Amino acid sequence: xxxxTRQVExxxxxxxxxxxxxxxxxxxxxxxxxxxxxxxxxxxxDVTLRGDVDPExxxxxxxxxxxxxxEEQIVRQLDHKHLNHDVTWLEGRVTTAENVAAAxxxxxxxxxxxxxxxxxxxxSRQNFVDYYGPAGAPVAR
Amino acid sequence: xxxxTRQVExxxxxxxxxxxxxxxxxxxxxxxxxxxxxxxxxxxxDVTLRGDVDPExxxxxxxxxxxxxxEEQIVRQLDHKHLNHDVTWLEGRVTTAENVAAAxxxxxxxxxxxxxxxxxxxxSRQNFVDYYGPAGAPVAR
Amino acid sequence: xxxxTRQVExxxxxxxxxxxxxxxxxxxxxxxxxxxxxxxxxxxxDVTLRGDVDPExxxxxxxxxxxxxxEEQIVRQLDHKHLNHDVTWLEGRVTTAENVAAAxxxxxxxxxxxxxxxxxxxxSRQNFVDYYGPAGAPVAR
Amino acid sequence: xxxxTRQVExxxxxxxxxxxxxxxxxxxxxxxxxxxxxxxxxxxxDVTLRGDVDPExxxxxxxxxxxxxxEEQIVRQLDHKHLNHDVTWLEGRVTTAENVAAAxxxxxxxxxxxxxxxxxxxxSRQNFVDYYGPAGAPVAR
Amino acid sequence: xxxxTRQVExxxxxxxxxxxxxxxxxxxxxxxxxxxxxxxxxxxxDVTLRGDVDPExxxxxxxxxxxxxxEEQIVRQLDHKHLNHDVTWLEGRVTTAENVAAAxxxxxxxxxxxxxxxxxxxxSRQNFVDYYGPAGAPVAR
Amino acid sequence: xxxxTRQVExxxxxxxxxxxxxxxxxxxxxxxxxxxxxxxxxxxxDVTLRGDVDPExxxxxxxxxxxxxxEEQIVRQLDHKHLNHDVTWLEGRVTTAENVAAAxxxxxxxxxxxxxxxxxxxxSRQNFVDYYGPAGAPVAR
Lengths: 141, 141, 141, 141, 141, 141
Known about the structure:
Chain A has three helices and five strands, in the order βαβαβαββ.
């Protein structure tokens, strides 16, 4: 068993805002991230697959296929976009890194033959989240 | 003579759009960077000063003073903001890296005792501009 | 369940030296890291929390609160300090990355509502440790 | 229990090619990575050990010993080499990152007192694999 | 006047070897870089243009045009190639970073309206060259 | 004419302190950098040479010779040392990056056949100085 990670980048803007709450509460919860005109990031996404190596190719998965999938499902969808306004599959979600990573999981997992293991989404070098899907994360004891 | 560089970062959104032109021309000129809701970056700014070292301190300039100035004049002004809508000193400019760097120069140079030598503004690891002020850049021959 | 990581940096000096041992043994154990006047690093600390996302905010934890805590408990305590001489909560410990990370855990874990999952402490790009607390690390089989 | 990681780098060339298959099938499987004259990378290897801290030294393992081992067993073996032609212990393997990491494990694990926990091999910033040995990887649920 | 830099990457192999010299002299001159099967790098190229900003667009040059040019003239030519064997415009040159940068200049300068100012070619984080064309480099005094 | 840069790293501690001044003045000038026990950095030094390419080798200078020189004159002298106490050629200087770079220049220039062009010394990613020697820096107009 091995893990293979491919990294992609996209530049997008977002605003942390829960449309179910009033303005004062939004400002209290999200501070400067609630700025009405939004702000932005050079997002970096590490997509990690887990599985067995094919003895014929020495690969977990055809990397070209993975690259094409991420280009189509992530980069073209999100690059140079506003995450709150331009992306139908993020509608109704507060666009925190936590929620965006979970939405990406829903989009990528069915297309990766059960091999998707982890998504790491960086908003910046200083901030990132790791998501292992609804079924769970590494067990520690 | 020595050069001293201090780096700061800010996360902002912008839209490349010239309000003097119609929509079709803007789209033609700026492509995906003209997306109406904008997009964003983790901008990085390298501020380079040039001058002589003070023999008492061994420093070109008090670094704490420089840090405080950049926090006040750059980071608080631009971090978590939309460059087109939230920054009075960028009004009326197309918010390309070239133009934003020139506007930063106007703001910083008068506060740095004639020592400001270069601004390098990264939109991403792949794209950056260097601006040496209106008086000119290094001479090559 | 999701993991959120926040990174902070501090510049400090240290000396690897066990005061319970004599000089010759210290030199043998620690080599150039035992240099009497010490040496230093730009340390980088990745603080990872683990837990459930709050549906109202889309966040694991208020990031501003986490940033303030790390500023107060890590950066102000260690930045521009000598780890052997200037930090009461490191007294009596050999200041290896392993021991410093464990001491940081004791300091941070009680302030993070049971959500602290991992500390990664880089001495340099080439050297780092991961600590998961006294209760254990991810189980592998 | 703690994890200690040491990073080393080497520059090498390789060609993805399975000698048991014909040329057309190799080209189909590996695309541009099958280029007959090969291509190359600045490989980066993160070697992670796991174990208990020695109370006398505050260290998981003597870092100098680990550095010397990696210099001898990895860097001198692979730096400025062609992985398909110059390395006896890679003969007969398709030189994917997955297979090279597994071969490194066989070489390093017996020399590290049962402490080797993970090898992360980067071909580039965008591509890397994690290998935890034949016995298994972190359990997720 | 402003400078705009765009960065591209490619993975290639090469061998330092002067075909006009015998094997012993080549080995003496180039050491491990003369390894017959070659070695490789993740090369990074920073292409810097210099000129005036177009007041209508706020740009030195259409960045999309520059990206397309670099993709066509650099990345497709060199990525996943052996610089000694697969690139007609490098034939007869020792493939040092110095010589490769000069060959890139000949290829790019005529396509960039006299705006090409500098090429910085990284073989690795530790090694790079800067080339300003045959007409000269910044004057220092 | 071309420029060749080689990067080296070293971990050291220092204290900003002018022994000709009293404690109160030192504290006023240097703030937290005047901490009596010092602090430290992972310093990075970029050494840039400038000159013509040797047509036989395609190189500005034998890179192996440059690497050996930097190992001997910089890394062995400064790595795991306290710049104020352990380095005879820094005695009597306030150990700011500005002064350390100038002292390095005096040490390296006579050993580099008149080819030394620039030293860039990073104290951290956020702070660095560029020094072009006593004769001068690039002319801008």
